[in-house]
Amino acid sequence: MKDFESLIKNRRSTRKFTQQLLSPEQVEKILKAGLMAPASKRKNPWQFVVVEDKEMLHKLAECKPHGAAFLEGCALAVVVLGNIMESDAWVEDCSIAAIFMQLQAEDLNLGSCWCQVRGRQREDESDAGDYVRSLLDIPYQLEVLCILGFGYKDQVNKPFDESRLQWEKIHLGTYRMPQEGAAE
Ligand SMILES: Cc1cc2nc3c(=O)[nH]c(=O)nc-3n(C[C@H](O)[C@H](O)[C@H](O)COP(=O)(O)O)c2cc1C
Q1: Which residues line ligand 1 (CB under 6 A)?
Q2: Domain 4-157 has CATH 3.40.109.10
């Protein structure tokens, strides 16, 4: 188990995985983390589709032309769905559940990456979510937010470089910084 500071520093996107499969205990821990996420009004508007079948992973990897190919090589994909009828904060709730699963994976020394589906298009400009919906038999009230790919890391990622922290995005007290050289 890592301390929280090293967990968030070491969680980097992994897009290359070994062939090794995850154990049922690892998969359970990842899913548990998603189910434990906070949600607006405790609505829990998420549903997770767990995919390990190689053929389906290959099809999911084709959901959009850029940024999805890594799914083909992962051991496990979790398709994160949000029920738009259950909560107007489904994007936020499902995103938090997704990052909880990614952080749990890092704690298990497993790699993961987020593949954005919501608002993304296929090569022919059709909706990437509709493609995933038809592949996995997803009902209309559920939107596809993203697909998370998990697996044993087959790449070495550097921890987050703290010299790149964008402190200029922090605003103290109010947004506006006192104007340099402004007349008093
Ligand atoms: C909302 C969101 C959408 C993302 N979509 C994709 C994606 O479609 N494909 C991909 O390869 N990575 C995707 N990523 C991963 C980002 O590219 C990655 O987090 C970012 O470059 C920072 O790198 P790091 O995760 O290694 O720190 C996404 C991340 C987030 C949070």
Answers
A1: 12-13, 15, 67, 70, 113-116
A2: yes
